[in-house]
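Lay summary. Proteins are chains of building blocks that fold into shapes, and those shapes determine what they do. In this project we predict the shape from the chain. Here is one chain we studied, written as its sequence of building blocks.
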Amino acid sequence: MLPCRLCTFKTPTPNHMKYTNYLLLFALTFALASCGQTEEKPKEHSDKNKMKIANMKLASDAHSYSKPEDAVVKHLDWDAVVDFDQKIISATANYKIENVSGTDVIIFDVNHLNLMEVRVEGELTEFHIGPDKKYLGQPLEVPITADSKTVSIKYETSKGAEALLWVDGDEPFLFTQSQAILARTWIPCQDSPGVRYSYNARVKVPSNLMALMSAENPQEKNATGEYTFKMEQPIPSYLMALAVGNVEFRAIGEQAGVYAIPSLIEAAEYEFQEMDDMLLAAEELYGKYVWGRYDLLILPPAFPFGGMENPRLTFATPTIIAGDRSLVALVAHELAHSWSGNLVTNSTWDDFWLNEGFTVYFEQRIMEAVYGREHSEMLAKLTKQELIAEEEDIRVTQNMPNDTKLKLDLLGRNPDDGLTAIPYNKGYFFLRLMEETVGRDKFDAFLKAYFTEHSFQVMDTDNFLAYLNDRLLTDEDRAAIDIDAWVFGVGIPANIPNVESDRLERVDSVLTEWVAGNAKISDIKWASWEYQEKYRFISELPESVSAAQMAELDAAFEILKTGNNEVLFAWLEKSIRKDYKAAYPRVESFLVSVGRRKFLTPLYRAMKETGKLDMAKAIYVKARPHYHAVAVGTMDELLDYSE
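And here is the predicted shape, written in a compact code that computers can read:
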């Protein structure tokens, strides 16, 4: 057996580095790469200036045992059988590898996989599994030679595999959730966002179900239950995705379509009719969509997120089906990931804002292009409201001020800890500030070049800021923006962009007057309001509002019967905090039927903070078996729950 070679985690580059240093580093990199160039060739047209980010020194990934600088996977052929009775996947992962440094070992990430055999160049070999670490799982070390090109790993998933959720009942379903570091619970892989590989797959499932992956997909079931997949573009492991269920497909435009179970397919087809318009708007902004098709799969309600940007096939929660197309901003967000995240990927989870801040910015631009500036500015104002509340909660209530920085330090922590509103919304306003400082046309040209020049590559914060300084910002721009405060500073900088929304300001005015007793319930024009206006009204209800006033609003507008889950969620949270007991049965039915963590955490927390912990735990006992492991981990900790 090989001696254990556990990964040594390196301390990330100090966050307080100033940008003069970044600029010098970037200039030096280009100088070394540009030896022999003539001075007359303009830098912006130089091939060397457009070198791939892979040639730059990137931050090391503290959340993966793999050492891709020594030996790295390049392609996966995955052969799997999905067993719903045993709730396991039996598979063989055949990797093509590159021995970069001439090392004698290649390291994979695994997390409680049952490994049966490992082969190198077709020959059985010994392997070594290192000690288990919380969150990280274990390193799988496979001996190789300088000439080794293939590694094959035969294995089974464990019944508690965290990425997998097996849904029982009349509509059995399996789906995976690999982000951030859960791919290693269902595939042995180099589970770092900085490692990309292409893949082919053959998957056997029960004949009454269809298999789908983050790849080229079938559009109808076959009689054998055997499906093949191809993903030619290299992707990181967190974008590996599998779903199995009784689903149907409906086309929406030439490049887009939606999958859903039969009982939801009509509603889904109606709800997402504007997907193709969004795709065209996105291409107009930042270049060609390179993934072929853009399809959407509606998952069971237990899916822990709003959406997951798996290439070619976004996974989405059914909670965005409102019946009036009011919640399609989430689709715009996941579509935007086709550029920011999937095309250019954060190299570590400390750089998560490079995925999500860019994506929220791009989402807002898509929504503006398709639905108009008035609509997108309402969304932006709600984004700012959410950011202010989240920043205060993290910095003050949780006393974790460093988690309000864009550049995170998640060493020794679960990278899911970084999935707050900060990388999303603070990142968005940082980019919006840049746009407003340099001008939209100039900023759009910069972003389009950024996505094009670094496509299918990875990026970290230091290298992005060096690129930003070299390609976009002047000294005057830098002084106006204050990059250090935004990226490495605690909290929200004072120069956060202002957002104007006449419609939401009118909502605020009506709310103020109603609370003060100067307006009647009939002055609240609920029926004509869009979802953003309703959400704003509910979420801004002040402490002084009583349970009796909640009852008055509910009687007038039947809010508990709304089909918009964002509005319903806001109402249920306020109902808990205002002791509006008529809403409690709906609180329970909602929490038992929906597994989206964005909804679960605030509702359970509201019960905990208002002396209703027994109520919270009673509901949680019923709901917990239906939640994905991602949600269970968060709720167990929040409620101090143990089985």
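What the prediction tells us: Residues 32 and 38 are 14 Å apart (CA to CA).
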